[in-house]
Amino acid sequence: MDNLKPHMKTLGFGHRASRHMVLEQNGKLWITVSAEGASFFLDSASAAVGLLEIDLIDGGESVPYTYEAAVGSIGLKSAKGSAKIVIDTAANALRITGEGVSLRLDAKTAPGMATSINTPRGTELTIGSGRYLFQSRTGKISFDDTWLLTQFHSVTPVLNLAADGGKFDLVAYDVPADTEPLPVTKTPEECAAENEADFLEFCGTLVPVTAEWDDIRGAVAYRLWLGSRALSNGEPGIVNNKLVSSETDAWRQSLTSFAFADADKAVPLILNLPIEYPFVQGSAVLRLLESGLLKKTSRATVYQLYDALRAKVLWLQENRTLGGVFYYAYRFETGLPAPKIFAVGEPVASPDLYAYLITACEALAQLTDLTYNDGEASRWRTRAKELAHDLVSELWVDNTFVAKNLYTGETTPADALLANMTLTIGKLLPVHIAAPLGDGDFAGFGILAAFGLLRAGSTDKARKITEKLLKSARENGVTDTAYGAALLALAHETL
User: Fold this and answer.
1) Distance CA 359, CA 362 (A)
2) Which of 53, 185, 418, 428 is the least buried, fewest Cβ under 10 Å from its Cβ?
């Protein structure tokens, strides 16, 4: 990624192994740290906030600057001098170096919990949940603070770093108070080169696409690389936006797994969280099976996937059936923000839930094939066919799929997204039902349905939909990591 500027307001500059971040806010660059806690939803309702604004200083006055951002570094230029920002992963530090100007880091407004103190280790600055330990390798640090005497702490901390010999070199550590900072042993140029190499190595683990869509692959790859982090349970995961949340959910992790060309990279994303709604893990596992990737994994991995999928299918069978019909009990179970199918009330049987279940049964059958248990595999295939029959008999009404309240029998048309979701079961649908599908909305979960077009043999339609989605991503940007990962896999398989 040679140009990160389109992402600086939303994703920011950083590294998958570091909490240090830089983002653009109000026309300036700000330093911050990635979110520690979980947002209630993956994308926090509040935007990411910078902690300290970066100013270049000459003669005590701020000078305007422009910047260029790439994966390895950010370069700032002004009429008086320049600066460079890198992530030093070996020292777990943010490095800012400059020449011809001095540096100011300004909190601008009081966050309510700002403290600053000089210690033998360096200058410690705490703003809200963010904490920095600053050490100057070149230049002199001083504070320009406004003190609120009744509070006994700095309200608007400003760190000034005066250049020495026309140069400055600042190290910002992200370390606990009882931890000694690691020594700086590398030049900014070496750090930038290592970070670029790390990103390229990560890109090599993703599925390839045709050269025409390399820009989309690069954008998705950056979101995946930057969002990689340990989840609160200690398992590796990929969050949608590291600036605003440290958490994610099971279905997003499973969609994210689609981007990886190696089962050893994809499987942990499917299993790192307990399987919850919506039940997309079956599609993620089926993708690995149909591409032959699971044949290269251990028998233990196959059993892990089998046990996780089987447990969820059996839970749904026990807890979400009424008269043998599967249903959603709550709106959140659909994974959609405002599911229209609940216009008839709950419990509501919906075609997409059946699509998820049938796909899971197909995946379970193929997983069992790998363990040479023909009888068990046959039973899962039979169950998939039974569910496909039930789907059509219960929810195919007047040549369209509907959702149905299981108490009142009232139906409502399933919107294009839910109708198209049934394509994920491929050829199990009768031809006269499958043929008209695939002309609706394929955003969000609907992108899974596009894979169903391939299974149903509609390769031309799948190709056209993929190209449409890729063009939309090019025009509007990739704004969701999980969606982008699934789109990358779709482009790999269809183009």
Assistant:
1) 5
2) 185
Whole-angstrom Cα distance, residue 206 to residue 218?
A: 10
Q: How many domains does the chain have?
A: 2
What tokens were used for 478? 């990739």
Q: Do 76 and 6 contact (CB within 8 A), yes or no?
A: no
Instruction: Give me the domain span that covers residue 96.
Output: 5-184
Span 350-402, pLDDT tens digits: 999 999 999 999 999 999 999 888 899 999 999 999 999 999 999 999 888 99
Amino acid, res. 278: P
131 and 230, same domain (yes or no): no
Same domain, 238 and 306: yes
List the CATH number of the domain containing 55: 2.70.98
Orientation of helix 446-455 relative to helix 281-290, angle to 10°: 30
* Contact status, residue 94 vs residue 84, Cβ threshold 8 Å: no
How many Å apart are CA 401 and CA 165, to the nearest integer?
A: 74
Say if residues 312 and 388 touch (Cβ distance below 8 Å): no
Separation CA 205–CA 221 (nearest Å): 10
Q: What proportions of the chain, in percent to the nearest 5, are helix, strand and coil?
A: 40, 25, 35
Whether 179 and 210 map to the same domain: the answer is no
Q: Which contacts of 337-346 are long-range, i.e. CB under 8 A and separated by 24 or more positions?
A: 340/412, 340/415, 341/403, 341/412, 341/414, 341/415, 341/418, 343/412, 344/403, 344/404, 344/405, 344/408, 344/410, 344/411, 344/412, 345/405, 345/407, 345/408, 345/410, 346/405
* Angstrom distance (rounded) from CA 25 to CA 466: 34
Inter-axis angle of helices 459-476 and 446-455, nearest 10: 150
**C-beta separation of 267 from 69 below 8 A:** no
pLDDT digit string (tens) for 413-459? 988 788 888 888 888 888 788 877 777 777 777 888 888 888 888 88
Whole-number Å distance between alpha carbons of 484 and 365: 28
Query: Per this entry, what is the length of the chain?
Result: 495
- Same domain assignment for residues 123 and 228: no
Residue type (1 letter), 376? E
pTM of the model: 0.90
Q: Within this chain, do residues 216 and 322 fall inside the same structural domain, yes or no?
A: yes
Domain shared by 167 and 244, yes or no: no
Environment class of 373 (CB within 10 Å of its CB; exposed 0-12, middle 13-18, buried 19+):
middle
